[in-house]
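for the writeup, i need someone to sanity check this before i put it in the appendix. the sequnce is what the collaborator sent (i think, or maybe the updated version? ugh). structure was predicted straight from it, no edits. if anything looks off just tell me and ill rerun, i have time this weekend
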Amino acid sequence: MSKLINLSGQRFGTLLVVSQSESRMDECGTSRPMWNVICDCGTNLQVVGRYLLRNTRKHCGSSYCKSIAETLPDNFVNRVTTPNGFLLEEK
Protein backbone atom coordinates (compact mmCIF):
# COMPACT_ATOMS: atom_id res chain seq x y z
CA MET A 1 0.00 0.00 0.00
CA SER A 2 1.41 3.39 -0.95
CA LYS A 3 1.73 6.28 1.44
CA LEU A 4 -0.95 8.96 1.11
CA ILE A 5 0.45 12.28 -0.10
CA ASN A 6 -1.24 15.30 1.47
CA LEU A 7 -2.39 17.45 -1.45
CA SER A 8 -4.15 20.11 0.68
CA GLY A 9 -3.17 23.61 -0.41
CA GLN A 10 -1.66 22.46 -3.70
CA ARG A 11 -2.81 23.78 -7.04
CA PHE A 12 -3.22 21.71 -10.20
CA GLY A 13 -4.09 23.83 -13.22
CA THR A 14 -7.15 25.84 -12.14
CA LEU A 15 -7.95 23.47 -9.23
CA LEU A 16 -6.98 24.21 -5.62
CA VAL A 17 -7.09 21.24 -3.22
CA VAL A 18 -9.02 22.21 -0.08
CA SER A 19 -9.15 18.98 1.94
CA GLN A 20 -9.26 15.21 1.78
CA SER A 21 -12.63 13.56 1.24
CA GLU A 22 -13.75 9.97 1.85
CA SER A 23 -12.06 7.34 -0.30
CA ARG A 24 -14.09 5.58 -2.97
CA MET A 25 -13.79 2.13 -4.49
CA ASP A 26 -12.98 1.98 -8.20
CA GLU A 27 -14.21 -0.65 -10.67
CA CYS A 28 -11.38 -3.03 -9.63
CA GLY A 29 -12.25 -2.78 -5.93
CA THR A 30 -9.27 -0.58 -5.07
CA SER A 31 -9.80 2.24 -2.59
CA ARG A 32 -8.96 5.61 -4.16
CA PRO A 33 -8.35 8.73 -2.02
CA MET A 34 -10.67 11.59 -3.00
CA TRP A 35 -9.96 15.29 -2.55
CA ASN A 36 -12.26 18.29 -2.25
CA VAL A 37 -11.12 20.92 -4.72
CA ILE A 38 -12.35 24.33 -5.78
CA CYS A 39 -11.83 25.64 -9.29
CA ASP A 40 -10.81 29.24 -9.99
CA CYS A 41 -14.37 29.81 -11.31
CA GLY A 42 -15.82 28.80 -7.90
CA THR A 43 -17.01 25.27 -8.77
CA ASN A 44 -16.55 22.68 -5.98
CA LEU A 45 -15.56 19.15 -7.01
CA GLN A 46 -14.35 15.85 -5.60
CA VAL A 47 -11.41 14.44 -7.56
CA VAL A 48 -9.36 11.25 -7.30
CA GLY A 49 -5.87 12.21 -6.11
CA ARG A 50 -4.01 10.25 -8.77
CA TYR A 51 -5.87 12.18 -11.50
CA LEU A 52 -4.40 15.37 -10.07
CA LEU A 53 -0.91 13.93 -9.64
CA ARG A 54 -0.85 12.39 -13.12
CA ASN A 55 -2.02 15.63 -14.76
CA THR A 56 -5.23 14.09 -16.10
CA ARG A 57 -7.48 16.50 -14.18
CA LYS A 58 -6.54 20.18 -14.07
CA HIS A 59 -9.85 22.04 -14.49
CA CYS A 60 -13.55 21.70 -13.60
CA GLY A 61 -14.66 21.02 -17.17
CA SER A 62 -16.08 24.42 -18.11
CA SER A 63 -14.83 25.74 -21.43
CA TYR A 64 -13.44 28.87 -19.74
CA CYS A 65 -11.36 26.94 -17.20
CA LYS A 66 -10.30 24.39 -19.80
CA SER A 67 -8.87 27.15 -22.00
CA ILE A 68 -6.95 28.61 -19.04
CA ALA A 69 -5.59 25.24 -17.90
CA GLU A 70 -4.40 24.38 -21.40
CA THR A 71 -2.33 27.58 -21.61
CA LEU A 72 -0.40 26.84 -18.39
CA PRO A 73 3.01 25.23 -18.82
CA ASP A 74 3.25 21.64 -17.61
CA ASN A 75 5.43 22.57 -14.64
CA PHE A 76 2.54 24.70 -13.31
CA VAL A 77 0.39 21.61 -12.85
CA ASN A 78 1.93 20.89 -9.44
CA ARG A 79 2.33 24.43 -8.19
CA VAL A 80 1.98 25.23 -4.51
CA THR A 81 0.44 28.50 -3.34
CA THR A 82 2.79 30.53 -1.17
CA PRO A 83 2.25 33.90 0.54
CA ASN A 84 4.35 35.69 -2.10
CA GLY A 85 3.19 33.90 -5.26
CA PHE A 86 3.71 30.42 -6.61
CA LEU A 87 6.49 27.97 -5.92
CA LEU A 88 7.02 25.75 -8.95
CA GLU A 89 7.58 22.04 -8.49
CA GLU A 90 9.00 20.04 -11.34
CA LYS A 91 7.07 16.97 -12.47
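The chain is about 15% helix and 35% strand. Residues 63-71 form the longest helix (9 residues).
thx in advance!!
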